[in-house]
Amino acid sequence: METDRNILTDERWSAIIHNDASYDGAFYYAVKTTGIFCRPSCKSRVPNKENVLVFDTADAALERHFRPCKRCRPNGLRLPDEEWIAQITEYIDRHYHESLTLSVLAEMCHGSPYHLQRTFKKIRGISPIAYIQKIRLSKAEHLLKHTDMTVMEIALTVGIPNTAHFATLFKKRTGSSPTEYRKTAKMGQGGSI
């Protein structure tokens, strides 16, 4: 239940959008879409106001299953690298079809692009961009096997707007063009080509 102390007032919203450190410790704010909570002074991108929840304490935010921001470390809390990378991986898995760059991911997860690149590669064994490509091409394989979408539609659906680039990446991963892959998959399923 939301109490008066947990309402996003104009004063609190102003503290958030102006990164006002004088409010640190007075309240914490969480962003529903990212699952992260911050101090008012956090330098991360300003969230959409309708996605913000306010908490009196860091513990209250943790109880609601929000994770502490890696950038501002509310109340001195730190995320282990494995948990941070798991959070980023989950985000990529849900948003692979969007325009994802290292800068976009770093901003979303409240870290620097350099630290994200280095830590992701240490934990996952590949770079974030290589992981995004892997997910996109895996989804493309599924769509080629199980739909009648055109190669261009599939490329757009998985987040690669350039069809020629998509075909090149796909062939590098599978050894065949998207069209050849589809024909082989359909023959393997007993379908006609």
Q: What report would you give on this structure?
A:
- With 193 residues, the chain is α+β, with helices and mostly antiparallel strands.
- The protein contains nine helices and four strands.
- The chain has helices spanning 10-17, 58-63, 81-95, 102-108, 113-124, 128-146, 151-157, 163-174, 178-188, and strands at 28-31, 36-38, 52-55, 67-68.
- A four-stranded mixed β-sheet has the order 3-1-2-4.
- It is elongated, with a radius of gyration of 21 Å.
- The relative contact order is 0.08.
In short:
The protein has nine helices and four strands; from the N terminus they run αβββαβααααααα.
Oligomer: single chain
* Average of the residue pLDDT scores: 88
What is the C-level CATH assignment of the largest domain?
Answer: Mainly Alpha
Strands ordered across the widest β-sheet:
3-1-2-4
Spans where pLDDT lies below 50 across 5 or more residues: none
Structurally, how many domains make up the residues? 2
Strand content: 5-15%
Rg value: 21 Å
Describe this protein with a few key phrases.
alpha+beta; four-stranded mixed β-sheet; 4 strands; transferase; HTH_AraC; 193 residues; 2 domains; 50% helix; DNA Methylphosphotriester Repair Domain; 9 helices; transcription; Arc Repressor Mutant, subunit A
